[in-house]
């Protein structure tokens, strides 16, 4: 069973609308944090974000426009007040620690964006470590995902 199949099965047991919205917001906020971590959002990172949105959208019918808007909103928050926005974003990922499959999916999505420009810079690694910690994923486990495809 693939991670996306597991994600779909999990959501069938819970309130889909609430969980979908919670996951979408955490995912877009986290990908915005990773995209900005190296100082600017590259075209490759935007393309990676779009790929992630398309993949999860096919499963749960996410509104692509809403996902892009969430990414933009969190990007602006990170530009205006980086410390406050970073705390808020990390807090959004924390509830996903309750479900390992969702936490791992969010981490994989973040890795797709981090690897979009062919290298994971030190500031992106720091963000990945912080996200993993919030979702109770060990750094060792995080490193096992680096070379895996989404």
Number of helical segments with 4 or more residues: 8
Major sheet characteristics: none
- What's the order of the H and E elements? HHHHHHHH
Number of strands: 0
The percentage of residues in β strands lies in under 5%
Distance between the termini: 14 Å
Uncertain runs are none
Helix content: over 70%
The overall pLDDT average reads 83
The general outline is globular
- Summing up helix and strand content along with how strands pair, one would put the structural category as mainly alpha
What is Rg? 14 Å
Structure write-up:
The protein is mostly helical and 150 residues long. It has helices at residues 3-11, 16-36, 43-60, 64-80, 82-93, 100-114, 122-134, 139-145. The mean pLDDT is 83.
State the main characteristics.
150 residues; globular; mainly alpha
Q: How are the secondary structure elements laid out?
A:
Elements lengths: L2 H9 L4 H21 L6 H18 L3 H17 L1 H12 L6 H15 L7 H13 L4 H7 L5
Helix pairs in contact: 1-6, 2-3, 2-4, 2-5, 2-6, 2-7, 3-6, 4-5, 6-7
State the gist of this model.
The protein is mainly α and 150 residues long.
